[in-house]
Amino acid sequence: MEVKAQVLPFCLSKGSGTFRFGIVAGDESRWLDECNLKKTGDRIYTIKDALLDKGEVRLVICPLADTKGFVMEVSGSRLPENISLCWAFGACNEDETLSKEGNIISPGACRDNVFSDEENVVTVYYGESMGLRVTSGIMPVGSELRLSDAHRQKTPLELYHSGKKTDAPVLSGFYSWTAQENCYFCFYKQNAKADYNYFMLPELFQKENKR
């Protein structure tokens, strides 16, 4: 049975951030939480939508053993040639109730987030200055990242082109995806055991997926 994707977006524990994922076809875009999905077990999501024509996107999300966070594999089959990926990450806030407002990234939880990005890696700083907290994220190499306005997330492309002048900053990203390619995303709390690079994610995913 296909159901609305109410399990999306993906919220890290203890207010460590929210990841909202979307697809783009030409000038049209849609958040996956607005698409139809079939969930298999605890980890596998198959997404279908008119933008995908007869194709589908498959997500496999695995929690990390060494820290709070997840690694995700994205794959597709029978997809149109013009499909790209677009996403947002933010709402890092110690007040978990503020960070979980339905199927959006809560603008109120984004207000004090500070982002530092370098190519396909991002670090988010949040919390009180004497107890600063950090969440790290890794995206596919070649991703185009920018700060955007969390007040404007009606569609992935609206958010991506919204501009960075806002009191609710969120990181948005765009990736020109080749459907035959498996790509990976990882968001996590850094510690002595957990400090990753993109080249490590396929092996990390296989390891966590076997648990």
What topology does this entry show?
Elements: E1 3-4, E2 10-11, E3 18-25, E4 28-31, E5 36-40, E6 44-48, E7 56-63, E8 69-77, E9 83-90, H1 96-99, E10 114-118, E11 121-126, E12 133-138, E13 144-149, H2 156-160, E14 169-175, E15 183-188, H3 201-209
Antiparallel strand pairs: 1-5, 2-3, 3-4, 3-9, 5-6, 6-7, 7-8, 8-15, 9-14, 10-11, 11-12, 12-15, 13-14
Description of the structure:
The chain has one domain: Beta-galactosidase, Chain A, domain 5, CATH 2.70.98. With 211 residues, it is mainly beta. The strands form 2 sheets. The protein has a 9-stranded antiparallel sheet, covered by helices on one side. Helix content is 9%, strand content 41%. The N terminus is likely disordered. This is DUF4450 domain-containing protein. InterPro entries: DUF4450. It comes from Bacteroides intestinalis. Pfam families: DUF4450.
CATH level-3 fold name: Beta-galactosidase, Chain A, domain 5
Per CATH, the architecture is Distorted Sandwich
The chain-level structural class is mainly beta
The whole-number mean of residue pLDDT values reads 88
What is the rounded Rg? 16 Å
How much strand content do the residues show? Answer: 35-45%
Number of E strands:
15
Spatial strand order of the main sheet: 1-5-6-7-8-15-12-11-10
Quote the distance from N terminus to C terminus: 27 Å
Q: From N to C, what is the helix and strand string?
A: EEEEEEEEEHEEEEHEEH
Please describe the biggest sheet, giving its number of strands, its sense, and whether it closes into a barrel.
9 strands, antiparallel
What is the total number of structural domains? 1
User: For the record, what CATH class applies?
Assistant: Mainly Beta
Spans where pLDDT lies below 50 across 5 or more residues:
1-6
Gross morphology is globular
- The amount of helix comes to under 10%
Tally of DSSP helical segments = 3
